[in-house]
């Protein structure tokens, strides 16, 4: 145990976490040449393309230091706010953290929020000034920023480059010398923290854990405390680039467990593994059931594909425990599913996976957060509104509550004005303003989650010319004035286009939605009136003018091959259209409410 070090890497996105992790593996000889690949830890295709670590992983390295052999367990953390609970559990499995700061970008919001998580868990922080090879690096200034933030000595900040490998040896020495060894008790009943799980279609779910007390053996009968289920440990082992089966994983170490579990949702991150016969009395603190934050309908473009879509969603859920869905129907779109996601990124990933891995073409409806509604009849009973059509009639509605978050934004002092205006426009209330350095300001706001899950981040980047970073955490439900804005096409209400909007913004947004839909809905043989309404009251109107005969006529004649290409293109574009009544609606129209600015 005294030669084990468990650590994670915390960094703002793109500050070089994956590259540096790669270098550590290289330097410790944990990767053979044949296995060498760029960005080893990010091994999902989608993930690689997006340049973000979607699922955390863990890897074990061995390293000789002053004549002694050490085991270094690197626990990777996801780099996106949608997955912040997983980050917190990974951090809870470690004694130390490398805090990586880009020498050109300095400290960003995610650096800070993850640092707070690490400090709450009493982790030893090793600051690393990364990318010192960059011509735009600003090592003195950024070191000062780090020193101000941590209250450490400048000599503790390790200068490094994941690109050239500079400083990697110093980092490894610091991990061994500064991070404390694990301190559990091998004689107590088993208590292991689940910090991640990976779905394997052949072997079932692989559970990644850190042993806090006791030990876990191959063939042991074990129990997961939160789910109450018991299993037989078919295999335990350590995580090298390939899994290494072992007879036992001891106190303080990190490993994987295979029990033949077939569904991702049976393994809950944050749960405690214990012995089935001699269980620990104490579950590890901090367990939470992850709750979806964003809901949207997913419908097949072709109604006949409903059963295929169901089968695909079920398969996706097997390996993505955070995806939830339930059947729903829409007057406009027929049968589909109301799905819950961790955030907009998660929604996009699911949509993309449905298309790539399952070859489904789907329509996703306007996303919304989850509201609590109360009626006059039963003012104490919570009605959970995950779908605009579930909002009770305005006349029966007692009140509505919406989820709020604490937003942390770090920006250059020059942009405080525009950032504040944006947050106020998004119904934010400022709660704190701190100058981290004379140039950098940390702003805290209480804001409705609904205002930030959609386009907030892009707007923030724009108003701050890229010099603002952002992170958030939930702070509970608060009263809200919510209305449902309905859309009528050709005098027919299209339920899948309805959106839940704060009353103060309803008129403006209703108007903008009509304008946007006018842009997006293709012209047809007849006029299509587009109306926005709150209840029976029409608040805005636009018209998509009928196609003039001579315009169609002009398309004919001319170069045959060009015309064929055009037709092919139209066919492809058509795929994502949905016929509602006699109007064709393209996919973008269903998301129009998110793109109004
Ligand atoms: P992550 O999002 O924190 O995992 O960051 P990555 O490791 O994916 O790196 C983000 C980008 O920075 C990539 O384009 C890397 O090639 C680049 N990068 C990472 N480390 C260094 C470094 O030390 N020097 C330079 N010049 N570029 C780096
Ligand atoms: Mg990465």
Features:
8-stranded antiparallel beta sheet; membrane; alpha+beta; 6-stranded mixed beta sheet; binds guanosine-5'-diphosphate; binds magnesium ion
Described by strand count, sense and barrel closure, the largest sheet is: 8 strands, antiparallel
Q: Cofactors and ligands present?
A: guanosine-5'-diphosphate, magnesium ion
Helix content: 25-40%
Q: How widely separated are the two ends?
A: 56 Å
By DSSP (H or I, 4+ residues per run), the number of helices equals 15
Report the β-strand fraction as a percent range: 25-35%
Q: Low-confidence segments, ≥5 residues, pLDDT <50?
A: 47-56, 551-555
**Strand pairing plus helix content: what structural class?**
alpha+beta
Mean pLDDT: 87
Identify the strand order in the major beta sheet: 11-10-16-7-8-15-12-13
Keywords: Cell membrane, GTP-binding, Hydrolase, Membrane, Nucleotide-binding, Protein biosynthesis
Catalytic activity: GTP + H2O = GDP + phosphate + H(+)
Main location: membrane
Family: Belongs to the TRAFAC class translation factor GTPase superfamily. Classic translation factor GTPase family. LepA subfamily.
Give an overview of the whole structure.
- This is Elongation factor 4.
- It is an enzyme of class 3 (hydrolase).
- Keywords: Cell membrane, GTP-binding, Hydrolase, Membrane, Nucleotide-binding, Protein biosynthesis.
- It catalyses: GTP + H2O = GDP + phosphate + H(+).
- The chain is α+β, with helices and mostly antiparallel strands.
- It is 26% helix and 34% strand.
- It has an 8-stranded antiparallel beta sheet with strand order 11-10-16-7-8-15-12-13.
- Strand 18 and strand 19 (334-341) form a beta hairpin.
